[in-house]
Protein 1
Amino acid sequence: MDKRSIIDSLIQRHEEFGQYLASLSKEDFEINRKEKWSAGQDLDHILKSIKPLSEILSNKEFIAAKFGKGNGTSSDYENLVRRYKGKLTEGGTAFGNFIPEKINWSKKADLLQLLHQRIEKITESLRGYTEEELDELLLPHPLLGALTVREMLYFTNYHVVHHQSNIIRNLKSVDNTM
């Protein structure tokens, strides 16, 4: 995926996630059963996941100095998703700062606005990158290790879809138990 496609996908997928969450009732937004996160918690997790990216992408020099440079190649989207799913199958889960808080309905609108702002900041920073820089600069991922910026963006694109699917599946399981 080239830079323009990545930016378009980031915007589209996060807008779809936000619109889906905006459509949920208070009960569906807050409910969690069987140790599964509520939709609000999934939103909080996504926000916590993209916050570091939104804060660091604008500083390429810092990224290079702190995390280094790779060999100039990135995995493709499908391979990155396969690696991530493999880590989840091995028992990988969110930890530390990425574990969501309980999120009440009253916070939903503000958090959805924050989601929009963070994606806007990420995509604005990306406009200053060359295709080569996306494949050269490295960032740390808590489960996958060192990723190129392009790979981190692939992850970010997949991650939001993964969590939206989790919410949909969890709400269906709640409906089936009633």
Protein 2
Amino acid sequence: MSKQAISDDERTIALTYLPPVVYLPCAKVSGPQGPEVEMRPLADGRVVLLAYTALDRLARSLGPNQPWIACPVDQLGAIQERLGYDTVCFDLGLPPEMWHEAEDVDE
């Protein structure tokens, strides 16, 4: 089954009706400090938190091996205070070469 990229129209609709919970990609789901949320550097030096409005969008954007956690939208500010990201990007696709491989996944 072929997975299609998220269209701009689909992204706009999702952001218009932002759900109460988003899905955040993680490097590790379990660890001594809890989940390790992944952030990505931007070309201008800022750090972005990726957030997905649905699990299928996360899988289509980051691949089938991407660990994730569910996060209430109202907790994104607390996560920003803790992790120090500069901005949030919703439903952003990454190229397959940036996806996790099956052996990368923390069980």
Protein 3
Amino acid sequence: MYTGKDPRADLFAATTKPPATGLIAEDQLALFYGTPPQAEGVGWKSWYHRGNNFVLAYSEAAPGAVFARDGQPDEYVVYLPDAAHGAVIEAGDERVAVPGYRIAFVPPGDSRVTLPEGGVLVRLFTTRSTDLAEAASNARAYDAARTHIPPFEAWPAPKHGFRVRHYSLDVPAEPGRFGRIFRCTTFMVNIFEPQKGPRDTTRMSPHHHDDFEQCSLALKGKFVHHLRWPWTVDMADWRDDRHVEVGSPSSLVIPPPVIHTTRAMDAADNDLVDIFCPPRMDFSLKPGWVLNAEDYPLPKD
């Protein structure tokens, strides 16, 4: 369903296999603007939104705010979208100053993220962090199992063991490469270059995923998420098309096998991040697409 010069065009072969029945789920939407946070403390407030395998924590903080995790069961993501707002990450014996406009991966165990200048902090956890999954605004949305999504399995440990790793987002565009993709043992994050102005409606990219969710995090601008549920032989699966208009910050979890594409709408910057848990194999197999691939090996199979 990718066309033209879209780098994803050769990822999927055409198929006539009909979608399975009885597996249709609803999208999950969270508007972090205009809604109360799920948690707050001295100098900070946080909104939590979950998918089948993950929890997204969006936080706004005053200078000096601290976000601690004790006994964290697995590796998690710290995303710092603003160049002027960095963080200090403490994990084990490490204390690492991470500039703004970076993505960092934090080892399991005890850790602390401090924002000396405050700002926006995005963290990504798997649902093994049960306290955060229960705190999510849509905590009950996954009480019915998504049987068409395989059980979560972490990818192999990084080379030379777990430690705080961080990577600059100041990466020039390259022909044939799609976005700015980073992965760890638990997540893949694709950070798009902010789009100036509305998206060209003659260059949309409708597509679907058979067995994994996509979370689209809007950090600046306005968007319309276009969603189409496939028809199966069971009309109970059928849904009307949806065109979900959102501002920023907001998060939309798109279930498989919903056909989807997103249109940026703001006249200024439109800033979107795509999140997958666990990492995507198809993107990982594209040479040069995952910018930190040397640090995180592929599964052996």
